[in-house]
Amino acid sequence: MRIVMAASEVVPFAKTGGLADVVGALAPAVAALGHEVSIFMPYYREVKAAYRQAVKSDLSVAVLLGEETVRGEIWRGEIPGTGVKAFFLGCDRFFDREGLYGTAKGDFEDNASRFIFFSRGILEALRAMGIRPDVIHCNDWQTGLVPVYLRTIHGGDAFFRSSATLFTIHNMGYQGLFWHWDWPLLGIPWSHFNWKELEFHGKINFLKGGLVFSDLLNTVSPTYAREIQASDEFGKGLQGVCRERAHDLFGVINGIDVRTWDPATDRHIPANYSAGRMAGKAACKAALQERFSLPAKKTVPLIGMIGRLDAQKGVDILLEAMPRLLGMDLQLVVLGTGKEEYEKKLKELSGAGGKVGVHLGFDDPLAHLIEAGSDFFLMPSRYEPCGLNQLYSLRYGTIPIVRKTGGLADTVTDATEENVARGLATGIVFESCSAEALTRAVERAIDLYGKKTVFGKVRRTGMAQDWSWDRSAKEYVRLYEIARERRRRSFSPTVG
Ligand code: ADP
Question: pTM for the whole thing?
């Protein structure tokens, strides 16, 4: 199959979160199964800096944005070392700036224009280059309009006649909502601005466009696929749309890129280790303590946490639990950026009682050190479509402490007595989204830390698991096939 993956961020070119990790690893994994895969993303300033090998193509695109025609460049490259082609859509007016979607002050005001340009531009570029995809795999709201354009302005276009679409929801909490005054920029008739299609409480909803117009949908874990249909808490207003498409909505757990996330070869950590040779992990712990100016205690359980500082990640619950956690014999290190209020409160806690280390910022090497040097990894998420850090943690012998939601529920098995006895336990799982439940979970973790044999067994069980992309890539290939089948059926006159 010829597959084109469209995403607003892809590792190693630009990243703000898990989406970039997923596309950057899934594309080579699908290619390794014998398919022709390419990726499309914007040519951000960050890409220009990170990837100097991109070559400007002679071809360009002309995208209609309302009344205006905006020209875009096509840059070519590849995901290094994989042979997967990468196409970058350039337009300095939209992409040559600091940040991908906004600044600390908020989202860019022209995000509607930027991602209309990107979505329409992908289709223009494919046509210009003569690439006729069997499947266009779109991801999140930034590419939600690609399926919309395929079935509206490109609806009668023979070139894309057999191109099916799969739309992956990585996070329902970000929908690409824009006021209705932006509608003329889209270039499609107002008749599509209705509650069954792109309208959402008077606004334009790009994510909804993807959900309604794609041939097939998936999200990044089976539990999250159920949760987003079940309630407003997870569906964020689009639960009805998800329910309506229940038969087309699948859940596929993300894999992890084992080339970059492997304690045996990781170049960001001071000592490598593996399940059979754990000595290096103690050296990583010592380095982590030193990095955060924490006392170099070998026997104190060290808990790590990394992520966007957002209510989604349960940072508020952690903050509420802090006074009680500080009374326990533990160390905690946090790496993240996000909401100003959380950053401020965490900064105030930094150094507290010689127990807390905080680094505000985005720092990939430090993320590796935290995964390697911690004994436990905390994810008290309110919701979590899949989550990657718990998978990295399992591989790094860092026992995850997670809230039972979304992908966390699907990937971590609680260390109950029975699960331990059966050799299934990999972490500490707690149910309620509260400071009390989090505190109790940390108490359980400390208790587990004290029982060296059980601790070792739980750790080894996690390290033995295979969360590489091979398995998930096969599931995606199956979804591509189903999407193509749905597409074929949709223009067969004999089938409903
Ligand atoms: P989300 O996509 O919701 O942000 P995920 O757990 O799926 O959460 O993926 C987040 C990814 O981004 C992980 O690879 C994580 O290590 C990384 N990450 C998040 N915040 C930071 C940070 N401040 N520094 C380094 N890496 C980070």
Answer: 0.94
